[in-house]
Amino acid sequence: MVEIVISGFAALRGSTGPRKFCIERWGEFSKLPRAHTCFNRLDLPLYRTYEELLEKLTFAVEESETFAMQ
Questions:
Q1: What positions constitute the catalytic site (predicted)?
Q2: Maximum Cα–Cα distance for the chain, whole Å?
């Protein structure tokens, strides 16, 4: 994690070498986002508003014990 802070997203690596961070559209707008930390990927539904995105993403990060595990 420290390397990411120092080097930015360009320093992200996967099991086969450098792997860019990406955001994929996924699921219904009622779903929470999901993370694939091994693949540096965040799956986000197409939320109806910015406020809804912020609410769901904040909830997933702060309240879910498994958000970063996959």
A1: 38
A2: 36
Q: For position 53, what pLDDT does the model report? A: 95
d(CA 15, CA 41): 14
Reference 43, options 53, 14, 4, 51; nearest CA is 53
Reported as a pLDDT band with limits 50, 70 and 90, residue 1 is: very low
Residues assigned a catalytic role: 38
In terms of C-beta density within 10 A (0-12 exposed, 13-18 middle, 19 or more buried), how is residue 33 classed? buried
Q: Dig out the tokens for 10 from the structure.
A: 């360009």
Give the amino acid at 12. Answer: L
Q: Which residues of 42-57 are buried (b: 16+ CB within 10 A; e: fewer)?
A: bbbbebeeeeebeebb
